[in-house]
Amino acid sequence: MTITTSTPSAAELASSIDHSLLQPTLTDDEIHKGLALARRLGCAAACVKPYSVPMARDVLVGSAVRVCAVAGFPHGNGQIELKVAESVRAIDDGATEIDVVVNVGKVLGGDFGYVTDEVRAVNAACVTRGAILKLIFETDFLEDRHIIRLCELCTELCVAFAKTSTGYGFARLPSGDYNYRGATEAHLALMRRHCGPAVQIKAAGGVRTLDDVLRARALGATRIGSSSTESILAEAERRRAG
Predict the structure, then answer these.
(1) How many Cα atoms sit within 13 Å of 115 on the Cβ side?
(2) pTM
(3) Is 99 a catalytic residue?
(4) Which of 28, 61, 176, 187 has the greatest number of CB atoms lying within 10 Å of its CB?
């Protein structure tokens, strides 16, 4: 996909980016620095692991940067009650956005009764506490028909965001190697077509460059998940400067 629109300002781009601090090896000091960076850049949110929510709340207090916590991350295999409890604990600790991984095995097995119960329960736990849910599909594992059904489910249950990937959904290839694609153009376009207008799209997984961000935005994504925020915004400033 060719990008033909002018480059938005760094501030405009930052306000649509969830700065990702989810790498399993990050130390508390590195997370603190990442939170300070998200605050300085004016990101939409900083996305952190559950135990980091209190730190994120304290670092980001007084700013417009939201605290986003993950639950059932990265594989989505916990029981419904545990996903709800993890979400509630994160909200109690200061998160206002929760990114939850759907039970991919149940999706692939066609058990959409279970999936509906899960998404309904987690979404209700978020909404009744003043938070929003972003449902992570892990699109690398799914066929188009699964993605379409999840989009329909997000629409039916008034989920705030449908999200492509965790960034950690490594699929085993026929060669035996592991890799992932993340937020592909085809999947983003499919999700935007099949989600209702009230459901926003978050592109995450493999979004590392300014052109990646611009393509995702052109396809209808209103939120971007990336750990490359600083370099993306620096490239936007360079392009706008000519």
Answers:
(1) 25
(2) 0.94
(3) yes
(4) 187
Q: Would residue 49 show up in a list of annotated catalytic residues for this protein?
A: no
User: CA-to-CA distance for 165 and 188, rounded, in angstroms?
Assistant: 11
Catalytic residue chosen out of the listed positions 99, 106, 140, 212: 99
Architecture in CATH for domain 10-240: Alpha-Beta Barrel (3.20)
Q: Which of 18, 140, 202, 212 is catalytic?
A: 202
User: What is the DSSP code string of 160-224?
Assistant: SEEE---S--PEEPTTS-EE---S-HHHHHHHHHHS-TTSEEEEESS--SHHHHHHHHHTTEEEE
163 noted as active-site residue: yes
Exposed, middle or buried, 162 (CB in 10 Å: 0-12/13-18/19+)?
Answer: buried
Beta-carbon-side half-sphere exposure of residue 24 (alpha carbons within 13 Å): 5
